Amino acid sequence: MKRNLLFISRYPEIIDEFQGILEEKQIETEIAQNGTDAMELLKQKEYQILVTDLNLDGYNGDKIISYVNQVFPNTICMLYTNSISAVQLGFYLNKRDVFRVFLRPVNFRQEFMQALEEAYELYDLKKHDRDSRQERLKQLEDNRKAIAEIEKIIENQNGRWKDFEIFADRLLGFTMERYGTAWNVEQRNQYFAKEKKLLKAMCENPNTHNIARAQNEAEVLMK
Questions:
Q1: What's 55's DSSP letter?
Q2: Which UniProt keywords apply (predicted)?
Q3: Which of 27, 188, 203, 221 could disulfide-link to 165, CB 3.0 to 4.6 Å?
Q4: What is the dihedral of CA 61, 63, 64, 69, to 10 degrees?
Q5: In the chain, what are the domain boundaries?
Q6: Which has the closest alpha carbon to 32: 65, 57, 66?
Q7: Is this structure's pTM higher than 0.70?
């Protein structure tokens, strides 16, 4: 996957220095010199790494980072600024999820590039976790749909078997009347009760085993 990065600074000399170092790396870099232009770029695509100053025209660096935190939670944010208090430092590291904070001037070739490599590794880990979660959610949703479809089929089948039970209940005793004319009243009542019980058991749970069992017991009743 090709690396990309958005660098935001209002100082041309800093931009030139930064771009000069990145020419040695295969990183797709886009530059914004103010917060307004940066926001327009962010609305167009997701960047893997964001490097920004705090003092910007238009949207300041804090608003840029806050926007990225909400819209692109996988993007790794790095701060590059002139000065920062201990309270601000704690805020950006803990509340704004900033990966690194650098004070100007900084050695882009050594310290910064090392942090950049670590930032890309972190991005890959976060993206992998997100993709894994999305895949699990998709599997759960597919399973839910499959279960709902199976339940619908079973419900329809149960409805058809219920209709069959009502129809078959009207035929109870038909076999007895046709083949059991020599039976006495007690034999007729016993046959009728067994036949009704057999039909009910088959229709309540109409699987292959119960249907076969019902057929076997019906043959026994006829003997």
A1: -
A2: Coiled coil, Phosphoprotein
A3: 203
A4: 120
A5: 4-137, 139-222
A6: 57
A7: no
| Number of residues that this document lists for the chain | 223
Asked if 78 and 99 touch (Cβ cutoff 8 Å), the reply is: yes
CATH number of 4-137: 3.40.50.2300
- The contacts of residue 49 (CB under 8 Å, 6+ apart) are 3, 4, 5, 6, 75, 76, 78, 116, 119, 120, 123
Burial 20-58 (b: 16+ CB within 10 A, else e): ebbeeeebebbbbbebebbbeebeeeebbbbbbbbebeb
Q: What is the pLDDT along the chain (223 residues), one digit of tens a residue?
A: 688 999 999 988 888 888 877 777 778 899 999 999 999 999 999 999 999 998 899 899 999 999 999 999 999 999 988 888 888 888 888 888 899 888 877 776 778 888 889 999 999 988 887 777 767 666 666 666 665 665 565 566 555 556 555 555 555 555 555 555 566 777 767 776 776 776 666 666 655 555 556 556 555 555 5
Of 12, 80, 88, 94, nearest to 52 by C-alpha is 80
CA 18 to chain centre: 38
